[in-house]
Specification:
By secondary structure, the chain is of the alpha+beta class. The chain has three domains: about 40 residues; about 80 residues, Protein of unknown function (DUF541), domain 1 (Translation Initiation Factor IF3), CATH 3.30.110.170; about 100 residues, 2-Layer Sandwich (Alpha-Beta Plaits). Helix content is about 40%, strand content about 40%. It is built from four helices and eight strands, in the order αββαββαβαβββ. A hairpin with a 4-residue loop joins strand 3 and strand 4. The protein is elongated and about 85 Å long.
């Protein structure tokens, strides 16, 4: 009996020693992996890149409208509607489609006057404003269209905005430039530490924007015929953030 008991005790001791060895080995593996991950995360260079493409605009958006004032609201509204009808007719006569003419605001605002004797205010008249946004796909006609709407009763030209209809191809080219810019910056940073073998690890598209060209009405002499309009150049920009790994 004593011999069998000794054998069992020896077997349990051996098993306990084996489990302890396995546990120690597994702990070493986890620690090694954690250490390796920390090192890998530390061996990165992050660079920010920008790219831009300039192009000529191919569409214009013009804000035009009619503002009328008077004492009687019905007459003011009727005058406004009559002038706006002439404005829209002049636009369609120049090839602007109905779907390219959109009402952006219509407002009726009373005008008040203060009576010092009574200490009260009263309505002295009304202002009616009707504003349109016109899409001009043939931007060479922009000046002619402005002349036409002013000649037919428009007394408000708020702004002219030029744009590009399809920006996808231009934006993709700007992205390529941005990525190359980020790589060049990362290589320059790595060179200072004698790091030559860097590889892209993570690329993030940071932002994009189109810089429009605006013309304000205050700067335009719309009373002249053949109003000169220069559309200039538009800039399509892109930016990226790139992480590079190295050994």
């Amino acid at each position: 009996m004593k011999s069998k008991r000794n054998v069992l005790i020896g077997a349990f001791a051996a098993a306990a020693l084996l489990l302890s060895t396995i546990a120690i080995t597994n702990n070493n593996v986890v620690e090694a992996n954690t250490s390796s991950t920390d090192v890998a995360e530390a061996r990165t260079i992050t660079a920010y890149g920008e790219g831009a493409i300039e192009a000529s605009p191919d569409v214009a958006y013009v804000s035009v409208g009619v503002i009328t004032e008077g004492k009687e609201l019905a007459k003011v509204q009727a005058e406004n509607a009559e002038k706006m009808t002439k404005v829209t007719t002049s636009l369609t006569n120049l090839g602007i489609k109905k779907e390219e003419i959109k009402t952006t605001s219509y407002s009726v605002n009373p005008k008040y006057v203060w009576d010092d004797k009574t200490g009260e205010s009263s309505i002295a008249g009304y202002t009616v404003s009707n504003i349109l946004e016109v899409t001009i796909n043939d931007i060479s006609k922009t000046g002619t269209i402005l002349d036409a709407v002013v000649a037919n009763g428009s007394n408000s030209v708020n702004s002219i905005r030029f744009g590009i209809k399809n920006q996808t191809d231009l934006y993709n080219k700007a992205l390529e430039i941005a990525v190359k810019d980020a790589k060049a910056k990362a290589e320059a940073m790595g060179k200072g530490l004698s790091i030559t073998n860097i590889q892209p690890y993570k690329i993030t598209e940071a932002s994009s924007r189109n810089t429009p060209v605006y013309f304000e009405s205050a700067a335009m002499d719309l009373a002249k015929s053949s109003t000169p309009i220069s559309e200039g150049q538009l800039k399509v920009s892109a930016s990226v953030s790139v992480e590079f790994s190295f050994k």
